[in-house]
């Protein structure tokens, strides 16, 4: 039973909105039935009014402010360095979000174990020391200064940190952290917010970079309030299909670099291995060319990647034909099928169509359209697309082949990987110096032209 003095407030568990009384629908984010009563024993905001309460900051002319790039800590992981914008900035608070089992703990433990010469403190509220040791042995221990602590109470952690100052701190995970300032349970909005605020203060006052792991909910947002994402400097998302080998890390927010970079890993027996040449692994190696596959040159962030698209069009057994897509937007597939049917006269409405992107990754890039169309037509005609051809163009509703961005980078990547011919939109040819490439560049304006070029 709560004491008479205990102060309670209702929090929306999805966005962190506060309300004095219970409401069914959150006025801030619009979600239903997300309000939970949480007990606050002391006013949390008064504890954290400012990071530098003692020292008053004075305005400075921008020209006199200096910084140095060399300060960044090299994570020894090329993919992670790139996503962070060139290493870890001292005093930064970095949130790593991802579904359970995707490899968040593995990624950060691996980094901690490889950062030789740096004292790293890995605090886990999820696994026991023995479990972590077992995992560390799998990955390989290089850093003798990697310390493990299993603790969930924030006050104890802060106490230890005041005695022992690591060069880097890792918290696994923010949802297990608990402060006695707030009486609600670990993982609730107010706990998450309060603990993060303390970690932020710690990072900014001591200059120790702090990584925090956060679980994500089914809809893909980081569990707990959106406010968490506002508080931290960098939000990294770790994603990928759990049943497949590849993992992609990307920054959805980065105060110290671009958010367009991505890193790709492969989960192997001894941890996460960096994938330096993603195109090479994402295209299936095969002896003979089969019908129904086509290679597209797509972009992940600002890196071109070649992906294989597989399609199967077969006569429908039941009245309503089935359409299914893995890694590709189903609505977009339906749209492309309608275009092929209406504008180009292919009888696809009586066919079941299945589409699959190899490697289990999800890409949203309109430049995949032309390869999708080629794969479907190839399967429908049962004529293979030669394996040294690739595609990069969007298809519009009238069956026109539309231009896409970053065409030069895509062509260069295709050439680098040994493709002999690339189909692009004719409109992309404008201003393109084709003489500097050895790969043959074919511009098409309509899907029919592509059909004639490939299958007749
Ligand atoms: P984990 O890091 O525990 O995920 P998270 O912290 O995001 O919940 O990763 C768990 C998965 O990774 C687990 O299913 C086993 C697999 N794994 C490997 O395949 N190889 C390895 O070397 C390690 C450590 C884990
Ligand atoms: Mg974990």
Description:
The protein has 456 residues and is of the alpha/beta class. It folds into three domains: 8-39; 74-276, Rossmann fold; 283-455, Ribosomal Protein S5, domain 2, CATH 3.30.230.10. It has helices at residues 44-47, 78-84, 104-114, 129-139, 154-163, 189-206, 227-231, 278-282, 330-342, 369-381, 407-416, 447-455; strands at residues 7-12, 18-19, 35-40, 93-98, 120-124, 146-150, 168-172, 210-215, 234-239, 246-254, 262-268, 271-274, 293-300, 303-315, 323-326, 351-357, 389-392, 394-395, 401-402, 421-425, 440-444. It has a nine-stranded mixed β-sheet with strand order 6-5-7-8-4-9-10-11-12. The chain has a seven-stranded mixed β-sheet with strand order 15-16-14-13-17-20-21. A hairpin with a 2-residue loop joins strand 13 and strand 14 (303-315). Helix 10 (369-381) packs across helix 12. The protein starts with 6 loop residues before the first strand and ends with a helix. 40% of the residues are buried. Residues 44-52 have low confidence and may be disordered. Bound molecules: thymidine-5'-diphosphate and magnesium ion. Thymidine-5'-diphosphate is lined by residues 98, 100-106, 135, 138-139, 267, 269-271.
Question: What features would you highlight for this structure?
Answer:
single chain; 456 residues; alpha/beta; Rossmann fold; Ribosomal Protein S5, domain 2; 3 domains; 9-stranded mixed sheet; binds thymidine-5'-diphosphate; binds magnesium ion
Mean pLDDT: 86
Question: In one word, what is the shape?
Answer: globular
Structural class: alpha/beta
- CATH level-four homologous superfamily name of the largest domain: P-loop containing nucleotide triphosphate hydrolases
Count of domain modules: 3
The description of the largest β-sheet is: 9 strands, mixed
Structure summary, number of beta strands: 21
Largest sheet: spatial strand order: 6-5-7-8-4-9-10-11-12
Low-pLDDT runs of 5+ residues are: 44-52
